Amino acid sequence: MAENRASAYGEGVPCWVDAQLPDVEAGKRFYGELFGWTYEDAYGSTVWARLDGEPVAALAHKADGRLPTVWTVYFSTPDAEATSRRILAAGGQIVTAPLPVGDGLGGSALATDPEGAVFGLWQPGTHPGFGRRHEPGTFAWAELYARDTAAVNAFYGHLFHDALFGPDADPDFGRAPVADVFPAEMPPHFVVHFGVEDCEAVLGTVQRLGGRVQAGPFEASYGTVAVVTDNQGASFALLQR
Fold first, then answer.
1. For residue 216, what are the domain limits?
2. Does the residue 32 lie in any domain?
3. In the predicted model, is pLDDT for residue 217 greater than 90?
4. How far apart, in whole angstroms, are the C-alpha atoms of residue 111 and residue 130?
5. CATH code at 70?
6. Within a domain: 6
7. pTM for this predicted structure
8. In sequence order, which residues have a C-beta less than 8 Å from that of residue 227 and are 6 or more positions away?
9. Considering its fold, how many domains does the chain have in total?
């Protein structure tokens, strides 16, 4: 088992990511070459990406062409129903109510914060989340680009206080103004970051595979970052620490 395998993630810790794509096979080729991922069928049309045998992400077929092609970060929760009620009480919205996933894998929900940024909840069953993280080719960080950072800090600080501010906090989750990186009119949104050893070198691979560079590389408090899109339009970031 990988050294950084977590048997369970605390409430509010980013524990999983998935990409909703028009063409999962094309996504497998893109990310397989970019990050060295291999794949196995998980449930329905969803595949799990693995690195050295450990699960690191999921690729899913986008059922409705009107939905965005997007990477989503999921925060761990012991009770998705209870967390959903707290989100509503704090001014957020529930996009997809908690539903069971697979054969006992867990339960998921989609929500938005008060500014409309979409994030997921994951209530673990037999699948706790990432088998590897914080290394090249795996999840490294989630950054929320917001309109009002004070307001979203209050929202997430209330929702996931221990994960963000508790004595054992390991947040993997930052907040920044949208205009720091994107045009001011860009809606608030999360950007999932994957670790790389050499940001510049990986940018070349992204472009060779049909992706494009949206921003960077630039220096952030947590490392060197470049925001890119894959060859189907899903945005994510590369993080060199």
1. 14-240
2. yes
3. yes
4. 20
5. 3.10.180.10
6. no
7. 0.96
8. 181, 191, 213, 214, 215, 216, 235, 236, 237
9. 1
Per-residue model confidence as pLDDT tens digits over 116-152: 999 999 999 999 999 999 999 999 999 999 999 999 9
Residues in contact with 10: Cβ distance below 8 Å, sequence separation at least 6, in sequence order: 76, 162, 163, 168, 170
Q: How confident is the model over 80-110, as pLDDT tens digits?
A: 999 999 999 999 999 999 999 999 999 999 9
- 8-state DSSP, 157: H
Distances in Å between the Cα of 160 and the Cα atoms of 14, 39, 227 are: 11, 32, 26
Asked, for residue 8, whether it belongs to a domain, the answer is no
Cis peptide before 217 (omega within 30 of 0): yes
Distances (CA, A) of 93 to 80, 109, 117: 13, 11, 10
- The token pair at 204 is 């070349």
Quick one: average pLDDT of 203-223? 96
Element (H, E) at 116: none
